Amino acid sequence: MSAVKERVLVGANSAILEWVARFWAWQGDRIFLIGRNSEKLAALATDLQMRGAAHVEVITMDLANPAEVWSFAVDFFGERERLDTLLVGCGVFDPEVERQPTFEGCHRLWAVNFESVAMILLAAKPHFIRNKQGTIAALSCWAGETTSKASENTVFGASKAALNRLMCGLRQELKPHQVHVCTIIPDQVDSQGLLKPEQVARDILLSMDHKDVIYSPPGLKWRGWVGKLVGGLQWRRP
């Protein structure tokens, strides 16, 4: 029987992360759930315990407040002895902000999608360096990888592109310390559509500990290259 692992999920109200947590519960792992909706987190915690999780702890906080997130994360990771996995999946999309940007709307979206995520990742870095093991992963988005339909998600896409760049830097920095850093880029998830949250969760669990970037479904990567090629040709058109 494998050793019990300690897993941290930030943004645990995400449908994808909920399925990841269920798979870890079936393995008998210890799970920390961090998110904004206390009722949903409590219901998920009960579900995970019934599925076999060794321990589930719920932590509720405002992920739209980067300063608060930083303060919490420094204390949280400083107090933990040894964590095996940190998976961050915070994200909001607001079509109204894309259509009619305001300072408050853009700041709120960037705060959740990038600033708070960055605070968590950077605060966790010393913990993983100290233990010289583990995986740090973050859920990004297709919008941060391509200019396709960029006018529909300019603000959102910019926040995810910034996250991708941060993950790239952390990957290079932490590799010498035996810490793996993985960026997860899923296609649009629809519980009624072709790509379901549990499918993305399965892709994450199969590859998170050894791949630098996970595209779900895998063919999404090739679509991105084609999109960039076509975009480049259009840009060069006289």
Structure report:
The chain is an alpha/beta fold and 238 residues long. The protein has one domain: Rossmann fold (3-Layer(aba) Sandwich), CATH 3.40.50.720. 52% of the residues lie in helices and 16% in strands. A seven-stranded parallel sheet has the order 3-2-1-4-5-6-7, with helices on both faces. Helix 1 crosses helix 7 (197-207) and helix 5 runs parallel beside helix 6 (154-174). The protein is globular and about 50 Å long.
Beta-strand level of the residues, as a percent range? Answer: 15-25%
Uncertain spans: 219-238
Q: Helical stretch count? A: 8
Helix content: 40-55%
Q: State the fourth-level CATH superfamily.
A: NAD(P)-binding Rossmann-like Domain
Reading the helices and strands in chain order gives EHEHEHEHHEHEHEH
**What's the β-strand tally?**
7
On the 0 to 100 scale, the average pLDDT is 86
> Could you give the order of strands across the largest sheet?
3-2-1-4-5-6-7
Distance between the termini: 64 Å
Molecular shape:
globular
Structural class from helices and strands?
A: alpha/beta
Task: Tell me the layout of helices and strands.
Layout: E1 6-10, H1 15-26, E2 30-35, H2 38-51, E3 55-60, H3 66-79, E4 85-88, H4 95-99, H5 103-131, E5 135-139, H6 154-174, E6 180-186, H7 197-207, E7 213-216, H8 220-236
Parallel strand pairs: 1-2, 1-4, 2-3, 4-5, 5-6, 6-7
Helix pairs in contact: 1-2, 1-7, 3-5, 5-6
Quick synopsis:
The chain is of the alpha/beta class and 238 residues long. It has eight helices and seven strands.
Which properties best describe this structure?
single chain, 238 residues, alpha/beta, Rossmann fold, seven-stranded parallel beta sheet, globular, disordered C terminus
